[in-house]
Amino acid sequence: MFRKVLIANRGEIAVRVTQTLQEMGITAVAVFSDPDRTALHVLRADEAHALGGTSASETYLDISKLIAAAKHHGCDAVHPGYGFLSENAAFARACGAAGLTFIGPTPEVIAAMGDKIVAKRTVAAAGVPIVPGWLDAGDGDVAALRRAAEEIGYPVLLKAAAGGGGKGMRVVRQAAELAGALDAAAREANSAFGDARIFVEKYIERPRHVEVQIFGDTHGQVVHLFERECSIQRRHQKIIEESPSPALDPALREAMGTAAVRAAQAMGYTNAGTCEFIVAPDGQFYFLEVNTRLQVEHPVTELVTRQDLVRAQVLVAAGERLPFAQGDLRQEGHALEARVYAEDPARGFLPATGHVRRFMPPVGANIRVDAGILPGCEVTVHYDPLLAKLIVWGQERPTAIARMAWALERFVVLGVTTNIAFLRDVVTHPAFRAGALHTHFLEEHGLTGGAVEVPQEALLAAAFALKGALGGRGGADGPAPGAGAKRDGTPFGSAARWRNV
Amino acid sequence: MFKALLQAAGGPPVAVTLERTAAGQADTHRAQLDDRAFEVELQQIGEGAGWLRLHERIVPFYTQRDARGVQVWIAGRTYFVETVARTPQRRAGGGAVVARDVLTAPMPGTILKLLAAPGAAFAAHAPLVIMESMKMELTLSMPHAGRVEAVTCRVGQLVELGATLLRLEGQP
């Protein structure tokens, strides 16, 4: 077993991985950028290494700095978390070359699955259904893409070959929009992945997004840990996930689980991964892609299966057998996850920045909070605006939904605008309760979290604060507005203040 | 006695009066919101936090003051409340904040593309500037038509929240 593991990440996932490593008696080594010097993931670690620099590219994406840090601290393995370098084959290879075990699939599998086109061809050859499309990504060849789009039939979806997270993705409803959309998609893909290749496929209206957790070990065992429904998305990014999916009956669940395992076997998959599918309104499912990492939403699977996926990742990476066989796995009760982001749903989900002044997650039975922040920390433009994940478990779906609504109503964040009230509007919506989910749920139901009646209590509390009845400075426990720029050297000066429009 | 005209974002201005009625353990106040008068009990719990008792109901709250006003948390929602003297400044949708005749950055970020040149006319909701923030592209437009008077940013520039990107001529 490993003695010391470097976590090449930040935020809530670094905190989450640290917990399991420490429970296993493994020393956890954090890395941090200049602004993250006082972040929670550093406080929780046993050892920490300053990467030097501010932007992601000069810190959490710098392969040579991360390898040097792992060598300097005498680590024997590296956990990449999700995002950053987690699906970067070159990083996995560099770890291997430096004598470090990469806790994830092999570089070959990451490279093959990272190319969404190769991934589709591989699973299609294993008999797993894929969305009808044109997989020859041109180098921005508009004419070729237009011919393909016309052959498939509009609407079509443009996707980045290196894609993920909705970046470089555009829906095109008619030929006239194609050139502009391709330009934007390619630019976004190039900026996000350094690869501008775009392919096109049939756009399926009102689909559900359902994914299956897969796990393989180096002894030839491959299992699935059931599905997660991830249909509630904004800007192609998931915000609410659950397991089981309200759309799957036992037969469809079995079929999708079997297809995912078959896909994993076809690619010689080891460690944790996720097979993403879309499920059309007629119940037909299509393979989308494999995410060769731990997912943001892995806790819902952990709560219904009572398994620790990070622990299983570490065991498998160390060459041990999977700690569970297919027959051991059960899906018990219902779990929901809501992602708390620093963003403003009323303004098109624009990311928000600022200092987090108060952060009090809800505490209670069957409530789990995976948080990456502390009060006083600054949310900057440099990294993902995910603050925390709220995960609840209930014996039945309605119980889990009621628990989620209860917990969201008691989640206190001040200083930065969040989507918490919006998340509660979603989970309490009758269509959500009915399980009628699809990826355009938010647009269809006009949910923006904005414009509610201001309760008289809000005006009274504000009046007491302004009156000076709530302490010397009425709760103004932070630095004066604008002082942040000088204090911590961020380039945004007074922009680092929160605002509520 | 506290008296002010308060306005929460999204709500109308409300005349608020607070007058303490009893000292001691319970801090009770006579409150008036426009023409509604009632009794409210305040229990402070640390700086900026506490609960209110209104008609027997306990309502926990948290507040955070800054130079402009107070951010208030009540039951999972936050409200921004300011003291107002005159008619508040008008804002419009479309992602960008409208302040007279400028397009400002709704987020700190990097300018990726300028789609409007000085002197060029633009239509309502036409893309004018594309910027990137937190690894996402934001397309900025105005809710009305007009003409670009001057471009006050450049491609690749890191801009602050509220930075003026374009000066415009047009009917706000």
Protein architecture, described:
The complex is a heterodimer of chains A (501) and B (172). Chain A has 501 residues and is an alpha+beta fold. Chain A is built from 17 helices and 23 strands. Chain A is 33% helix and 24% strand. In chain A, the strands form 6 sheets. Chain A has an 8-stranded antiparallel beta sheet. In chain A, helix 1 links the parallel strand 1 and strand 2 (27-32). Chain B is mainly β and 172 residues long. Chain B has strands spanning 2-8, 14-22, 27-33, 36-44, 49-54, 57-65, 70-74, 77-83, 98-99, 102-104, 109-114, 121-122, 129-133, 136-140, 146-151, 158-159, 164-170. The model of chain B is unreliable at 87-99 (pLDDT under 50). At the A-B interface, helix 8, strand 17, strand 23, helix 13 and helix 16 of A face strand 1, strand 2, strand 3, strand 4 and strand 5 of B.
List the helices and strands and how they pair.
The complex is a heterodimer of chains A (501) and B (172).
Chain A: E1 4-7, H1 11-23, E2 27-32, H2 40-44, E3 47-50, H3 63-72, E4 77-79, H4 89-97, E5 101-102, H5 107-114, H6 116-125, E6 133-138, H7 142-152, E7 156-160, E8 170-172, H8 178-193, E9 198-202, E10 208-216, E11 222-234, E12 237-243, H9 250-266, E13 271-279, E14 285-291, H10 298-305, H11 309-317, E15 334-341, E16 343-344, E17 350-351, E18 354-355, E19 358-360, E20 367-371, E21 378-379, E22 386-394, H12 397-409, E23 412-414, H13 420-427, H14 430-433, H15 441-444, H16 456-467, H17 483-488
Parallel strand pairs in A: 1-2, 1-4, 2-3, 4-5
Antiparallel strand pairs in A: 6-9, 7-8, 7-9, 10-11, 10-13, 11-12, 12-15, 13-14, 15-22, 16-17, 18-21, 19-23, 20-22
Chain B: E1 2-8, E2 14-22, E3 27-33, E4 36-44, E5 49-54, E6 57-65, E7 70-74, E8 77-83, E9 98-99, E10 102-104, E11 109-114, E12 121-122, E13 129-133, E14 136-140, E15 146-151, E16 158-159, E17 164-170
Antiparallel strand pairs in B: 1-2, 1-8, 2-3, 3-4, 4-5, 5-6, 6-7, 7-8, 9-10, 10-17, 11-13, 11-16, 12-15, 13-14, 15-17
